[in-house]
C-alpha cells in the first residue's frame, strides 16, 4: 500500500509539473560571453593608481538598449586593476566615479569577447618615497605627497593589516592626522603605529594615504608594503 | 483506498488549476469594503487598523526587522534595537552597525508604506458618502490626512523623494498609470508638511487620552518633519551624493530651502507651546533625587504624564503584536527573572559623558578617572598613571545630571532592590590586574572576584557569560518597568510608548531658532532651560547649538531619535568613521580596598563606519516599478 501511495504521489507530481509546462526548462537566453577588464593608470607616470577594495573607487556601467537599465558597479582591486569575467557582449556606458583620481568623461564602449579598458587619469594626490622603520616602540612611516588637485588635503592616514588588501575599512591598526591645507612636495610627513597593536614576529601590510577635500573622494595610497614587525 | 481518492481528487483539482477564473470568488471569510464602511463603527474599526500601521518607532520597531516586527517576523531580534547602532548604545552580542542587513537595507519600510497609503486613499474616497454628521466627517478626514503625513514622513526620511499617490490605483489601469514616478525630495517634504496642515485645520483638541490624532499631534509631527527637512537642506553638503537620482533632485535639498523649513518648524512648535494645553511633567523638582524619580516614572507609565505627552501608543495586552520585549532584553543579568537573555542594551560611556554636572553648567562632564584628568586616553589600564580611588563605585558620578541615573543603571546602584554589581577587574596586593577575564585574588582569606562576585547570577557586567553582561559598564533603565519580573515568554511588556512629547517640541524649536537665526531666541532659551530645570538644574545656560544638541541627546536618549538626528544633520559618517564606542570599567583595587575606573574601548568590538550612501535607503523592486534608484545601489 505504501509503495502504491508513493507511486501515486510521484504520478501526481509528474502531472502537476507537466500540466503547467516549461517549469523545468531553462530560459532561452545565452549566458555571459565576454570579459571586461583593465586598470586605472597615472597619465603622467604610467604607474597603476593604487585603490581601496572596500568602499573604494567604482566603475559604473550601464548596458544600452534597455528601458530603465540598472546601473551596475565594478570595484577596483587594490593594485588599480579591475575585471569582470561574466559580462554580456553589447554596448555599455562606462564611467569611473567617486574615486581618487580625475575621472575621464563617461565613455560608450563595445564589450565583445576579451575587452580591455585602460583609464588614463591623474590621481588627486601621489604618495611618494614611503619608508618604514621600526624604532623599538613604533613602526614609523615617512613619506612625501605630490599634490595634483587644487583642493586642500584633508587628512593623512597610516594603516596596517595582515591582509594585503589593507584599507580604510580593513585594518587592525590605524592612525591619522588632519591637515586641511595644501602640501609642499618636499615636506616629509611622519606617522607612527605603536608596536603593542601588533603580534610580534608576524608580517603585516602597511599603507599610508592622504585624502583630498573633494566630495565623495577616496584616499590616495601607496602600494601596500610588506613589513615584518619584530 | 480513501487516500487514493484524495490523491485522485487533488490531481483533478490541480489539473483544473490552470483555468483562469477560479480565483475570482467572493471570499466568505472576510468583510467586503462596502460592509465595513456602511456604519460609523465599521469606519472606526478600519481606523484602528490604520493607526496600527503608522510607522511609529516604538519598542517593536528595529532596523533589521522593520515596524511592528514581532507581528511580521517573530519577536526574536536578539535585542538588536536602533539605539545599539548609534553612539548612545552598543549591543552585548552584536557590535557593529550592521548585523544581518547592510545599512542601506536597514529600516526598510516601502511596501508597508504604500499598503498603508492605499488604505488611507480608500478611506478618503468613502468618507464623503458616509451617513454621519459633517463634523464627524471632518474628524475622519483630519485623521486620514495625519496618517498620510506620517506615512510620507516615514518614506521621505528613508528614501528621499517618493511617488506621491493620492488616488486609489486599479490594477486594470495598466502599468502606465500604476507606475507613478518619484517626486523630488522637496516636493515630498512639502507634501508631508501640507498634509500636516490639512490635518491640523480639521482636527480639534482631542479627548485627553493622547491616543488619537488631534490638532496638536499633527503640529508636533510637522515640527519634527520640518526640522528633518531643514537639516537636510542645510547640511546636504556635508555628504553630497551623485548619480541619476541626485541629478533629478529625487534626493537632496538645496541650502536655500533650509530657512523656509526651519520657519515652518518654528511656527508649528510655537502653536503647541502657546496653546496652554501642555506643560512639562513635574517641571519644578526640589532636588536631583526627586527629578530622577519624576523622569523615570514618566517613561515607566506615560499615562501619568499626559500633561507632557502629546501622542501615546498604548500597549495593553500581552502577546504577539500586542506586547513588547524591552524588559526581557534590557534588564541587567541580576534581575532577569526567568528570562535567559538579559543585558542586551549597553549604554555607552560616550553618552554618559554628555550629561552635565550641576557644578559646571553648559558643559558636558566626561567621567574623570585619573589624576591627570585625561579623558581622551582609551588605551586601557596603564599602571604608570595615577587612578582616582572611590570608596563607593557610584561616587564617581557625583553631581551628574539626575537624568543619567534615571536613564541608565550605574555600577553598584540599586535596581528592583538589588545591588547591581558591574565590575570588570580586580587588582591584587602585588599590583597585578585581572581585567575583563574571570578570576579572583585572595586577600586575608577573602576572595575578591574580577567580576565582583562568584557566579554569573550574582553580577551584571563584563563577563562573556551568555552575552548577558554589559560590556560598557552601564545597564539600561529608561522604559523598564521596575515592578515587572520577566517570565520565560515573549511580548510580556505592556509599557506605553510616548511618540511625541512637549520636551521634543521645545528642542525642535530651540534647534530651529539657533540654526536659522530667526524666531524668538528668548523663548527658545527659556524652553531649553525649562527642560534642564525639570532635571533639577538651577543654573541657566545660553542658547547655543552645542547646548541645544547636548540637551537633545540627553533628554531624548533611547527614544529612537538619535539615529535620525545623525542622519538628518549628516553627522553619521563623521561620527562613525572607523569609530570605537567606549566603556567605563570599574576595577576593585585590593591594595586600598577601593574602586578605580578605566576608560577604554568597549571590549570585543571592531571599529564601525557609516557609509554615506546609507543616508538614503535602497528602493526595492526597481526592475518592475521603473523608479530611479537611490545613489550607489
What report would you give on this structure?
The complex is a heterodimer of chains A (230) and B (633). Chain A is mostly beta strands and 230 residues long. Chain A folds into 2 domains: 34-121, Carboxypeptidase-like, regulatory domain (Immunoglobulin-like), CATH 2.60.40; 125-228, Sandwich (Immunoglobulin-like), CATH 2.60.40.2060. Chain A is 8% helix and 47% strand. In chain A, strands 10, 11, 13, 14 and 15 form a 5-stranded antiparallel β-sheet that branches. A 4-stranded antiparallel β-sheet of chain A has the order 3-2-5-6, with no helix packed on it. In chain A, strands 4-1-7 form a 3-stranded mixed β-sheet, with no helix packed on it. In chain A, 27% of the residues are buried. Chain B is α+β, with helices and mostly antiparallel strands and 633 residues long. Among the domains of chain B are: 39-249 and 613-625, Serine Threonine Protein Phosphatase 5, Tetratricopeptide repeat, CATH 1.25.40; 345-471 and 582-603, no CATH class. In chain B, strands 12-11-17-18 form a 4-stranded mixed β-sheet, with no helix packed on it. In chain B, strands 1-2 form a two-stranded antiparallel ribbon. Chain B is globular, with a radius of gyration of 27 Å. The A-B interface holds A 4-5, 8-9, 11-12, 15-16, 19-20, 55, 58, 67-68, 70-71, 73, 97-98, 168-169, 174, 215-216 and B 3-4, 7-8, 10-11, 14-15, 17-18, 237, 239-244, 578, 607, 609, 611-612, 622-623, 626, 628-629, 632.
Amino acid at each position: 500500500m505504501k509503495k502504491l501511495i508513493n507511486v501515486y504521489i510521484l504520478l501526481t507530481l509528474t502531472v502537476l509539473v507537466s500540466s503547467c509546462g516549461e517549469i523545468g526548462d531553462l530560459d532561452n537566453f545565452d549566458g555571459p560571453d565576454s570579459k571586461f577588464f583593465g586598470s586605472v593608470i597615472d597619465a603622467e607616470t604610467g604607474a597603476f593608481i593604487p585603490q581601496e577594495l572596500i568602499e573604494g573607487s567604482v566603475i559604473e556601467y550601464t548596458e544600452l538598449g534597455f528601458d530603465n537599465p540598472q546601473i551596475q558597479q565594478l570595484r577596483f582591486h587594490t593594485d588599480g586593476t579591475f575585471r569582470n569575467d561574466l559580462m554580456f557582449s553589447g554596448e555599455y556606458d562606462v564611467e569611473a566615479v567617486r574615486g581618487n583620481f580625475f575621472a575621464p568623461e563617461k565613455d560608450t564602449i563595445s564589450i565583445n569577447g576579451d575587452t580591455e579598458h585602460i583609464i588614463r587619469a591623474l590621481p588627486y594626490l601621489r604618495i611618494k618615497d614611503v619608508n618604514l622603520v621600526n624604532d623599538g616602540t613604533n613602526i614609523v612611516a615617512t613619506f612625501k605627497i605630490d599634490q595634483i588637485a587644487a583642493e586642500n588635503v584633508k587628512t593623512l592616514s597610516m594603516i596596517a593589516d595582515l591582509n594585503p588588501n589593507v584599507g580604510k575599512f580593513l585594518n587592525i591598526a590605524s592612525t591619522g592626522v588632519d591637515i586641511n591645507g595644501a602640501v609642499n612636495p618636499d615636506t616629509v610627513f611622519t606617522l607612527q603605529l605603536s608596536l603593542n597593536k601588533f603580534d610580534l614576529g608576524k608580517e603585516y601590510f602597511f599603507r599610508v594615504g592622504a585624502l583630498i577635500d573633494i566630495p565623495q573622494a577616496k584616499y590616495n595610497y601607496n602600494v601596500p608594503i610588506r613589513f615584518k614587525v619584530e | 483506498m480513501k487516500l487514493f481518492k484524495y490523491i485522485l481528487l487533488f490531481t483533478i483539482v490541480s489539473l483544473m488549476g490552470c483555468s483562469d477564473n477560479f480565483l475570482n470568488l467572493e471570499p466568505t471569510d472576510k468583510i467586503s469594503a462596502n460592509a465595513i464602511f456602511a456604519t460609523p463603527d465599521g469606519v472606526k474599526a478600519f481606523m484602528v487598523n490604520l493607526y496600527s500601521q503608522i510607522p511609529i518607532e516604538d519598542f517593536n520597531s528595529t532596523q533589521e526587522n522593520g515596524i511592528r516586527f514581532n507581528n511580521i517576523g517573530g519577536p526574536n531580534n536578539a535585542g538588536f534595537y536602533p539605539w545599539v547602532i548609534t553612539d548612545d548604545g552598543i549591543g552585548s552580542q552584536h557590535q557593529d552597525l550592521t548585523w544581518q542587513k547592510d545599512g542601506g537595507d536597514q529600516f526598510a519600510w516601502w511596501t508597508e508604506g504604500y499598503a498603508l497609503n492605499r488604505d488611507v486613499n480608500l478611506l478618503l474616497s468613502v468618507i464623503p458618502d458616509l451617513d454621519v454628521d459633517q463634523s464627524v466627517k471632518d474628524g475622519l478626514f483630519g485623521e486620514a490626512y495625519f496618517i498620510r503625513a506620517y506615512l510620507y514622513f516615514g518614506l521621505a526620511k528613508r528614501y528621499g523623494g517618493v511617488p506621491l499617490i493620492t488616488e486609489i490605483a486599479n490594477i486594470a489601469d495598466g502599468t502606465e498609470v500604476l507606475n507613478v514616478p518619484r517626486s523630488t525630495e522637496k516636493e515630498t517634504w512639502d507634501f508631508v508638511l501640507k498634509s500636516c496642515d490639512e490635518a491640523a485645520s480639521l482636527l480639534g483638541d482631542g479627548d485627553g487620552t493622547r491616543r488619537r490624532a488631534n490638532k496638536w499631534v499633527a503640529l508636533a509631527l510637522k515640527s519634527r518633519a520640518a526640522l528633518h527637512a531643514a537639516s537636510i537642506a542645510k547640511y546636504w553638503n556635508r555628504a553630497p551624493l551623485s548619480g541619476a537620482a541626485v541629478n533629478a533632485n529625487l534626493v537632496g535639498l538645496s541650502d536655500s530651502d533650509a530657512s523656509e523649513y526651519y520657519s515652518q518648524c518654528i511656527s508649528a512648535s510655537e502653536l503647541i507651546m502657546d496653546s496652554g494645553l501642555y506643560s512639562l511633567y513635574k517641571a519644578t523638582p526640589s532636588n536631583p533625587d526627586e527629578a530622577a524619580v519624576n523622569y523615570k516614572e514618566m517613561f515607566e507609565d506615560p499615562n501619568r504624564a499626559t500633561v507632557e505627552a502629546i501622542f501615546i501608543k498604548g500597549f495593553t495586552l500581552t502577546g504577539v503584536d500586542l506586547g513588547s520585549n524591552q524588559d526581557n532584553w534590557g534588564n541587567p543579568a541580576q534581575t532577569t527573572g526567568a528570562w535567559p537573555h538579559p543585558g542586551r542594551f549597553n549604554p555607552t560611556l560616550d553618552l554618559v559623558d554628555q550629561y552635565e554636572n550641576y557644578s559646571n553648567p553648559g558643559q558636558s562632564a566626561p567621567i574623570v578617572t585619573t589624576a591627570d584628568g585625561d579623558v581622551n586616553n582609551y588605551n586601557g589600564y596603564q599602571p604608570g598613571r595615577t587612578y582616582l580611588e572611590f570608596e563607593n563605585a557610584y561616587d564617581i558620578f557625583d553631581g551628574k545630571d539626575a537624568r543619567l541615573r534615571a536613564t541608565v543603571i550605574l555600577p553598584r546602584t540599586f535596581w528592583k532592590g538589588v545591588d547591581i554589581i558591574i565590575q570588570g577587574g580586580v587588582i591584587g596586593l602585588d599590583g597585578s590586574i585581572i581585567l575583563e577575564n574571570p578570576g579572583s585574588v585572595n586577600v586575608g582569606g577573602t576572595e575578591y572576584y574580577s567580576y565582583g562576585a562568584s557566579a554569573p547570577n550574582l553580577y551584571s557586567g563584563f563577563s562573556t557569560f551568555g552575552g548577558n553582561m554589559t560590556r560598557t559598564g552601564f545597564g539600561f533603565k529608561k522604559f523598564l518597568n521596575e515592578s515587572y519580573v520577566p517570565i520565560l515568554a515573549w511580548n510580556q511588556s505592556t509599557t506605553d510608548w510616548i511618540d511625541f512629547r512637549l520636551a521634543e517640541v521645545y528642542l525642535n524649536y530651540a534647534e530651529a531658532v539657533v540654526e536659522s537665526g530667526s524666531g524668538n531666541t528668548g523663548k527658545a532659551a527659556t524652553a531649553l532651560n525649562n527642560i534642564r530645570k525639570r532635571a533639577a538644574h538651577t543654573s541657566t545656560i545660553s542658547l547655543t547649538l552645542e547646548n541645544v544638541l547636548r540637551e537633545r541627546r540627553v533628554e531624548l536618549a533611547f527614544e529612537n531619535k538619535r539615529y535620525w538626528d545623525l542622519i538628518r544633520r549628516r553627522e553619521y559618517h563623521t561620527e562613525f568613521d572607523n569609530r570605537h564606542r567606549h566603556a567605563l570599567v570599574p576595577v576593585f583595587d585590593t591594595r586600598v580596598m577601593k574602586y578605580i575606573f578605566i576608560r577604554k574601548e568597549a571590549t570585543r568590538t571592531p571599529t564601525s563606519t557609516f557609509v554615506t550612501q546609507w543616508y538614503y535607503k535602497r528602493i526595492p523592486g526597481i526592475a518592475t516599478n521603473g523608479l530611479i534608484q537611490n545613489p550607489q545601489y
